[in-house]
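Structure (tokenized):
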């Protein structure tokens, strides 16, 4: 049995790099197939390159779902460990980055379920979908401002909004992921957009 050189504790030791990633190393100029071969062979340099290249983006993804930095780091650690230890499961269907994102999103959802924070208030409301679809986030808002807005949403609203608007999932896919009805997914999205619209209005956007 081969030893995987980047277990969770080693990934966690590098968590200080999330906001200040170092200069990328030798795998910058290789193609994806070569990188995947190196990762499948558990090459430490390839694994470090993957961490340095993708952890800031994946950490930002985790923070959109999870309110605290600690929870986001834990989801990132678990997600990257699964990526590295299950690299042979990537079949080439879709982008490699998209495959990693799905794994990390699933880790975020698992954490929300584990902490019993994933509830869906107002899922029985009859709302105007056409009106909700006029919602948009101002292009001039910073990533920090957007995250601050998302932090003010109930977890159900926030999770469905992230999955639908930012990750591109369809309502039937969200329903399957979260164990809810398609109508609940739709109502959570509409309520999230209404809440965000009110928050943006209060901020003068």
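Design, position by position:
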């Amino acid at each position: 049995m081969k030893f995987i050189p980047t277990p969770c504790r080693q990934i966690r030791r590098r968590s200080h790099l999330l906001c200040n990633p170092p200069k990328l190393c030798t795998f910058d100029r290789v193609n994806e197939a070569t990188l995947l071969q190196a990762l499948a062979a558990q090459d430490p340099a390839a694994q470090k390159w993957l961490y340095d290249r993708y952890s800031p983006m994946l950490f930002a993804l985790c923070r959109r779902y999870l309110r605290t930095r600690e929870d986001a780091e834990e989801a990132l650690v678990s997600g990257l460990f699964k990526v590295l230890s299950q690299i042979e499961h990537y079949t080439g269907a879709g982008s490699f980055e998209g495959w990693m994102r799905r794994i990390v999103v699933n880790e975020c959802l698992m954490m929300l379920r584990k902490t019993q924070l994933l509830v869906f208030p107002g899922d029985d409301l009859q709302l105007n979908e056409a009106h909700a679809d006029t919602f948009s986030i101002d292009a001039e808002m910073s990533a920090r401002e957007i995250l601050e807005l998302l932090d003010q949403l109930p977890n159900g609203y926030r999770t469905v909004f992230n999955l639908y608007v930012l990750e591109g999932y369809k309502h039937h896919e969200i329903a399957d992921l979260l164990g809810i009805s398609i109508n609940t997914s739709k109502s959570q999205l509409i309520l999230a957009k209404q809440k965000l619209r009110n928050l943006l209005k209060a901020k003068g956007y």
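Reviewer-requested clarification: Residues 137 and 146 are 8 Å apart (CA to CA). The chain has ten helices and no strands.
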